[in-house]
Amino acid sequence: MFSAKEAFYKCQYEVTGEWLEFRDIELQLFCGNPTRGRFVVRPTRRAGWFERVIGPALIRFSAQRDLALTAMTLEV
After folding, report:
1. How far apart are the C-alpha atoms of 26 and 48, rounded to whole Å?
2. pLDDT computed for residue 43 by the predictor
3. Is 75 helix (H, G, I), strand (E, B) or coil?
4. What DSSP letter does each residue of 8-67 carry, written as one string?
5. Which stretches in the chain have pLDDT values below 50?
6. Could you tell me which residues come within 8 angstroms of residue 5 by beta carbon, excluding any fewer than 6 positions away?
7. 18 phi and psi, to 5 degrees?
8. pLDDT confidence of residue 29
């Protein structure tokens, strides 16, 4: 989860210039497989920039043994 949130924060900052706290977003597992899939990102507070700039956001992940890989891209 931490890796996925970091991927989101770093990706969105390049677009919005907005500094976020760890609690400003939440992640929801999009698929039932705990080792590979996607998270849906949602803001935990009213965030006009989120809907205006980002909209629905997905983070892809893969976890194997001691390694977690996460990736996110934004269309701007």
Report:
1. 16
2. 78
3. coil
4. HHHHHHHHH-----GGGEEEEE-SS-TTEEEEEEEESS--HHIIIII-SEEEEEEEETTE
5. none
6. 22, 25, 27
7. -90, 125
8. 85
